[in-house]
Amino acid sequence: GAVVSQHPSWVICKSGTSVKIECRSLDFQATTMFWYRQFPKQSLMLMATSNEGSKATYEQGVEKDKFLINHASLTLSTLTVTSAHPEDSSFYICSASGSGSLGNEQFFGPGTRLTVL
Amino acid sequence: GQSLEQPSEVTAVEGAIVQINCTYQTSGFYGLSWYQQHDGGAPTFLSYNALDGLEETGRFSSFLSRSDSYGYLLLQELQMKDSASYFCAVRYNFNKFYFGSGTKLNVKP
């Protein structure tokens, strides 16, 4: 099956620093990548959708200047949390979908647990 | 906008059958997916229905009725490892996905 990796799996940082999270599709071309945020015992909240080579589409309420998304290739998307604050602490999950039948499902990365002190 | 309703929690015993319902409201509907998520882990894909009817994959089956904006996930021969949260998600406007709030399934011995 299709595999998506995410790095790092967890990160602890000081308030005010920026954190970059990488999401890679390992064995298929991800035409679309999604970034989600999940709080404990809650659902996945879609933050943004990105297509390779074009600007990400952010969901309402998500600050594009704070959560920078780059989808530079068909296998790599990055999310940078700029000037992180404790309220940004969360579980961030990326997913990817491909073309054809691979577009019907999302393949999720293992997630990144961000803790901002 | 989009909305999805599914029960917040369901409890069943090992070996039993459980059905998790999902009703949705969306425009530009493409299909309904189901995902399983264990505590601390990432969601994993279970099924996708674009057309009306029942799709069976092993112990899991998923049903869709587009006219009723309704679907369900059926889990048979429940095992302890099936204890997890189950999310339905609508695919709309081609490449948009909206997730429900999740149903926590507790399987008891």
Span between termini of chain B:
40 Å
**Order of helical and strand elements of chain B:** EEEEEEEEEEE
Number of strands of chain A: 11
Kindly provide the radius of gyration of chain A, computed on alpha-carbon positions and rounded to a whole number of angstroms: 13 Å
Biggest sheet character of chain B: 6 strands, mixed
Strand content of chain A: over 45%
Q: Measure the end-to-end span of chain A.
A: 37 Å
Please work out how many helical segments of chain B DSSP would assign.
Answer: 0
Please report the total strand number of chain B as a whole number. 11
Stretches of chain A where pLDDT is under 50 for at least 5 consecutive residues are none
**SS content category of chain A:** mainly beta
Topology:
The complex is a heterodimer of chains A (117) and B (109).
Chain A: E1 4-7, E2 10-13, E3 19-25, E4 32-38, E5 44-51, E6 57-58, E7 67-73, E8 76-81, E9 90-97, E10 107-108, E11 112-116
Parallel strand pairs in A: 2-11
Antiparallel strand pairs in A: 1-3, 3-8, 4-5, 4-9, 5-6, 7-8, 9-10, 9-11
Chain B: E1 3-5, E2 9-13, E3 18-25, E4 29-37, E5 44-49, E6 53-57, E7 60-65, E8 70-75, E9 84-92, E10 96-99, E11 103-108
Parallel strand pairs in B: 2-11
Antiparallel strand pairs in B: 1-3, 3-8, 4-5, 4-9, 6-7, 7-8, 9-10, 9-11
